[in-house]
Amino acid sequence: MEEEWIAGKHSVTEALRSGRTINKIWIADTAQKHLTQPIIAEAKKLGIVIQHVDKRKLDQTVPGIQHQGVVAQAAPYAYVEVDDILAAAHAKNEQPFLILLDEIEDPHNLGSILRTADCTGAHGVIVPKRRSAAVTATVSKTSAGAVEYVPVARVSNLGQTIDRLKEAGVWVVGTDVAAQESVFGNGVFTGPVALVIGNENKGMGRLIREKCDVLIKLPMQGQINSLNASVAAGVVMYEVLRSRQAQG
């Protein structure tokens, strides 16, 4: 893949701010000036080519995405290595906080998880190379630009990655509706932690579940016994943040 599309005001703005290599920006003739003016000003400062085009061209370029009349052509998304994520945590003198996604397939869920990961101070997200959503324009748009700040690693084997994290002293916590232990007040989130979120329909695979140090669940009071994957991930990520802030 030689190029990637970034669509929408927030996504393009954060890509510019983060120093992402952008080759060109297209602005729809009908785009609202108050949305596009700051982007145009920043792009001109950076010497990025800006082209005003018919909105239909943008609709064809990023079909199905609410682009708000702004689309950028960027260098391919730069995935990182797992060691880079751990090193970033150590550089901040913080206990590692990672999110492992076991075959999350919906790009909207991946985008939402990246957005919450940024808000809660997670150091990075790990996804498998196969049967998993990759970072795309839809993911970038759903993440509101957070994809530019949360490192994402793609790995060939999630199970082996969990083994490596355990060797590095990271506690692996899986989310499972059948678990006995509640996510709240369990004391496992203050040290180095990797939170595993399972597939939207099947949950975690058996092998991944067996490799977890502890399984937790969200308490359910209603008739429906599960949440959307990105919502569940968000609740648990905020419990990690709350636990760490309470510890000081």
TrEMBL record:
One of its GO terms (biological process) is methylation. Residues 5-80 form the RNA 2-O ribose methyltransferase substrate binding domain. One of its GO terms (cellular component) is cytosol. SMART domains: SpoU_sub_bind. InterPro entries: Alpha/beta_knot_MTases (IPR029028), Ribosomal_eL30-like_sf (IPR029064), rRNA_MeTrfase_TrmH (IPR004441), SpoU_MeTrfase (IPR001537), SpoU_subst-bd (IPR013123), tRNA_m1G_MTases_N (IPR029026). Belongs to the class IV-like SAM-binding methyltransferase superfamily. RNA methyltransferase TrmH family. This is 23S rRNA (Guanosine(2251)-2'-O)-methyltransferase RlmB. The gene is rlmB.
